[in-house]
Structures are given as structure tokens and as C-alpha cells.
Design brief:
This protein is an all-beta fold. The protein is built from one helix and eleven strands, in the order E-E-E-E-E-E-E-E-E-H-E-E.
Length: 154
């Protein structure tokens, strides 16, 4: 897969599903099995951003931004369990704030963590993945980045 091609996920069943992620947010490195989030870092002041930006809002540099893949692992800073969800989302589900080693904080649905109180712990390591987060009006699954409890052994 070329660097700037969109990620395509397909399922084969009677409602054919094709979800295309925005290639500006995701990159498929050849050395990894799964896509990683695409961010940017200012070469002048070191600030990292997600999603990717062309101008640093800290030092206002517009010529020193470089694209960087973001870490796939982070720490769960806080979370809540959603029982009354917006249309298309199927409750209950966990929603949390994940801190990446780059210092970024990302809001994300946390999957594969039920029962919530037994599996989710503040400060635990979580891992980036992609999963169905909702259903659209046609009944198709809508995919986005999610985090899951890490299976990495240190």
C-alpha cells in the first residue's frame, strides 16, 4: 500500500461495507501490521499535533512542520461509561482520554474492555486499533480509531 492511499476495510455479507479513512489522518507503515495516526511536529519548537497541521500554533512557524507517525500505545488518563448515546451509537460503551508519549491527549472510544469496572484502570496502557463505533442510517458500521487494553508484554 502506498503511503497516501486511504485505508479501506471491507466485509462480505449482504450489506457490502466499504469504509475509507481520511488519508490525512492515517498512515500504513510497511513495518507495522496496523495503521498508525498521522501527526505533525514543529522542527523549531518541538510541539506535536494531531491531526496533522501545516502551521505551529505555539511558535507560528509555517515552514518547519514535519509529518510524524504517532505512538500506537498510550495511557488511559480518565474515562466514563456512556449509557445514553447519540443516534447510531450502541450503548453502553467506554469513552476516554488517552495520553500518548508525545504529550498529546486524544478522546477515543475504548473497546474490548467489558466489564468496564474490572478491565479499565486509570493509568493502564492502551493500544491503538480500528473498530466499528456506530451505525449509519443505512445500517452500515462506521469505523474510526479506537483504543483497547494493551496486549503488549514488557
Amino acid at each position: 500500500m502506498k503511503k497516501d492511499q486511504p485505508v479501506v476495510m471491507e466485509e462480505t455479507h449482504e450489506k457490502a461495507l466499504r469504509i475509507i479513512f481520511n488519508p490525512e489522518m492515517f498512515v500504513q507503515p510497511l513495518s507495522l501490521e496496523k495503521p498508525v495516526l498521522r501527526g505533525s511536529r514543529c522542527r523549531e519548537c518541538g510541539r506535536t499535533y494531531f491531526p496533522k497541521r501545516t502551521i505551529c500554533t505555539d511558535c507560528r512557524s509555517d515552514e518547519n512542520m514535519e509529518e510524524v507517525p504517532l505512538s500506537r500505545y498510550g495511557q488511559l488518563y480518565c474515562y466514563t461509561v456512556v449509557y445514553a448515546a447519540p443516534e447510531g451509537f450502541i450503548p453502553p460503551y467506554a469513552f476516554g482520554l488517552v495520553v500518548l508519549p508525545e504529550g498529546l491527549r486524544l478522546f477515543s472510544i475504548i473497546q474490548d474492555c467489558e466489564p468496564f469496572d474490572a478491565r479499565l484502570k486509570i493509568g493502564m496502557e492502551v493500544e491503538l486499533d480500528f473498530g466499528a463505533i456506530a451505525r449509519n442510517e443505512a445500517g452500515q458500521d462506521v469505523y474510526n480509531y479506537v483504543f483497547k487494553p494493551s496486549r503488549r508484554r514488557e
